[in-house]
Design goal:
Elements lengths: L1 E5 L2 E6 L1 H10 L1 E7 L7 E9 L6 E5 L2 E7 H8 L5 E9 L2 E9 L25
Length: 127
C-alpha cells in the first residue's frame, strides 16, 4: 500500500494482495520509521468497517486509520471502479479528501517493477 499526502488530501493506493488481505482479514497497514526510536513512526491503515454509509478517517498519535464500510469495499473490489472517494469534514469549513485507489501497472516499467498491481486499463490504448 502506498500513501500520498498533499495538502488536505490522502491517497492510498492498494495492490491486489492488499485488497485480498483487507477482504480476508479486515485490515491492511504499513509503517514509516523516521528514526531509530521505535516511537518515531507513522502507521497508516485501511480497515473494513461494519457500519456507516461512507469511509471515515481517524488520527491518533501517529496512526492514520481509514475505515471503509464492508458493503462499499466489496462492491469496489469486485468492480472495474478505480477508487473509493470521500470528503471528511474536519472543522472550520475544511475537508480532508480521501481516495483509496487500485494500484495499476505503469505502462513504462518492466514486469518486475509492476508485480502485484492491477492490469492497467490503458494497456491496449493506441496512440
Amino acid at each position: 500500500m502506498k500513501l500520498r499526502i498533499k495538502g488536505n488530501s490522502l491517497r492510498l493506493r492498494v495492490t491486489p494482495s492488499d485488497v485480498e488481505q483487507l477482504l480476508r482479514d479486515g485490515a491492511v497497514r504499513e509503517h514509516v520509521q523516521f528514526t531509530a526510536n521505535p516511537n518515531d513512526r507513522l502507521t497508516y491503515e485501511v480497515i473494513r468497517s461494519s457500519s456507516g454509509p461512507t469511509a471515515t478517517v481517524a488520527y491518533c498519535l501517529g496512526n492514520i486509520t481509514v475505515n471503509v464500510p464492508e458493503v462499499q469495499l466489496k462492491e469496489w473490489a469486485g468492480s472495474n471502479d478505480v477508487g473509493i472517494y470521500t470528503d471528511v469534514a474536519v472543522g472550520d469549513d475544511q475537508v480532508l479528501s480521501v481516495a483509496i485507489e487500485k494500484d495499476f501497472a505503469c505502462l513504462d516499467l518492466s514486469d518486475a517493477e509492476n508485480e502485484d498491481t492491477f492490469p492497467n486499463p490503458n494497456l491496449a490504448a493506441t496512440c
